[in-house]
Amino acid sequence: MAFVNHNWKQKLVFLVGCWLIFSIPLPSNAQVRVNSSVDKSRIKIGDLIHYEVRFHYDAGIEIQTPGLGSNLGAFEIRDFGDFTPQEKAGSFEKIVTYTISTFDTGAYVIPPISVGYTVLADSSEHFIETEPIDIYVESMKPSEEGDIRGLKNQAEIPIDFKRIIIYALIALAVILAVVLFWWYRKKRQQGGLFSTPEPPPRPAHEVALERLNNLESSGMLAAGEIKDYFTELSEILREYIEGRFSIPALESTTFEIMQAFDKPEFHDVDLGAIEPNLNLSDLVKFAKFMPREEEAIAALATTRDFVENTRIKELPVEAEQEIETQEHEAVEQVEESAL
């Protein structure tokens, strides 16, 4: 009888242990599913692709939504949408959309996006990836089935010598005007004409600091004109880079500007504030991103610091006088050699 009671106690301990083990929530990748899709996998160059990432997850899961910084390979992000999760049959569904495009032809792949999520029961972190998607980009070639007609017989045009003479005289007058303009400009540069020399262009840092002060006192932030504010801030920064470092920043993308700075002569330049401010301006301009007022004020402050730290230092008065003397002596030597 004692043996039976002992066996019964062992079974009870076993059942209680099993209940404790299986009652503890365990993290599992089966709790989260992700599907990615595109509206078309074959496009013409410049066409837009609507890329959708759809998450399905159980309660107790927190998804770390991928944002505009996601790496989509050769594709540029033109628009971005992050939608509120919807509850369906005890689980949740969340949708993130990207509008992307590329201007290069060939076969490309939208790479997998790694998405993190947290199991709230034990605060454990996990990751799940989307599937890669193949995209083929075709060039804009004219249709081979168009209406192609043969050339008509060319009509003979009689030679009009009077017209030829008129055109020749016009061409001669244009050439003469160009030569006179070149001569006039050269004489003016040498000081041979009674004309007031043009004032030298203002230093790039003076123009940039003046425009930054005007932007700071413009009241755009108070009026909610965030896009206009960042458009002006980006233009000020790009014009300063172009005037100070001779980099064509106004016509370049942020990526191209940072590539241009990747040269030995710019290694001493502190670029810490450039790329974040340009990227933030691009997000406001193209992705309709709305930063906080504190971020806007900080962006202007870091831009001003960059201008102050990289401005061309003014020479002492003695050094400027010595340079002017050398330039004057060089001009006199040129005039003497010309005589």
Q: If you had to describe this structure to a student in words, what would you say it looks like?
A:
Helices cover 43% and strands 20% of the residues. By secondary structure, the protein is α+β, with helices and mostly antiparallel strands. The model is unreliable at 18-30 (pLDDT under 50). Strands 1, 3, 5, 6 and 7 form a five-stranded antiparallel β-sheet that branches. A three-stranded mixed β-sheet has the order 2-11-8, with no helix packed on it. A three-stranded antiparallel β-sheet has the order 4-9-10, with no helix packed on it. The protein is built from eight helices and eleven strands.
Helical stretch count? 8
Total count of strands: 11
Low-pLDDT segments, ≥5 res: 18-30
Task: State the major sheet.
Answer: 5 strands, antiparallel
Element string (H = helix, E = strand): HEEEEEEEEEEEHHHHHHH
Strand content: 15-25%
Mean pLDDT over all positions: 80
And the CATH topology of the largest domain? Immunoglobulin-like
Architecture per CATH nomenclature, i.e. the level-2 architecture of the largest domain: Sandwich
Give me the secondary-structure category. alpha+beta
Q: What oligomeric state do these chains adopt?
A: single chain
Instruction: Provide the CATH top-level class of the largest domain.
Output: Mainly Beta
Q: How far apart, in Å, are the first and last alpha carbons? A: 135 Å
As for the number of domains, it is: 3
Fraction of residues in H or I helices: 40-55%
Q: Please state the CA-atom Rg, rounded to the nearest Å.
A: 35 Å
Shape: flat
